Amino acid sequence: MKLIRPLAALALLIASALPALAADAVFPPGLRVGMVPLIGLSKAKTFPGFESEDGGVKVLVTELPPDAYGEVANAFKANPGGTGGIKPDKLETPAGLAYYTVETGKAGTETVKRYSMIVPGTGFSGYVAVQIPENATKIYSDEAVRQMFATAVTRKEVPVDEQLAQMPFRITDLADFKNVRTLSPGASIVLADGDETTGFEPKPYMIIGMIGATPQQADDRARFAQEAAMQIPGMRESRITMSEQIRVNGQPAMETRLDGVSGKDKTQVTVVQWIRFGGGTSLRIIASAPRDQWSEAFTRFRAVRDGIQPKG
Questions:
Q1: Contact between 215 and 225 (Cβ < 8 Å)
Q2: Pairing of strands 33-34, 188-192
Q3: Which residues of 211-242 are buried (b: 16+ CB within 10 A; e: fewer)?
Q4: Lowest-confidence region among 74-83, 102-111, 219-228
Q5: Alpha-carbon span 184 to 131, nearest angstrom
Q6: Among residues 130, 119, 126, which one has the least CA distance to residue 52?
Q7: Whole-structure pTM value
Q8: Which has the least CB within 10 A, 47, 93, 132, 292?
């Protein structure tokens, strides 16, 4: 009875709070989708979202490409009865019409309830995945999760300082880039003059992030850098025009340049890749500009590159 009473009290507290869940949405750092987490959930330590104190209840919040919402909406409309015994549902949220599913599964040997929801955003789709252990479903019930989903909201922009604070490095010079977008919270970021609506390729942009262990020998580093450059996503008809060893802020690095085409309009671009080698991780920068804008863009690219400093 000593255990049941506190649990019952928490359940009543959650239930009594449901009608008030609307005004205080929380956005995980760096994301454009947020919601009001249920009582007993706080910011997650190892992923973007919320979790219970014991880590059993998890609410993952993330962003998907803008087309994802439309694909899910079309699938729901084409098959409203669902598949595999999983019936889709929908609800209105401040972010727009959301679609969600509920199913029972396993996490190891433990039975869990899983909820997935997608909402529309401007230039992205918001996605939320919830996992609740069976022994917590009386407190975090279907209705409680639905009420939490109903508070989903999106924002058009994430403050630049908030995005930069999530990175494992400091960027001291943004070189007047107009848009800052987190690609992967705590891992990579894009600086661009364009946006998701028009595409980044027609204007200068940079992708900055950390990569795992890289070769230690100079010859191996050169080969690694060239292979990485030829695998840059979105580049077609690529041709390396230069690759040489340099030093960036006193650290060994490789600079590799290539020409190619990029984007749906087949923009003729020149791309530079810098890999600044470190111990356990290395910094990788990919910077692209239309060929007729290259000279001015390269000066900006170098200003950003030389202003990247380790944290601490």
A1: no
A2: unpaired
A3: beebeeeeeebbebbbebbeebebbeebebee
A4: 74-83
A5: 22
A6: 130
A7: 0.73
A8: 292
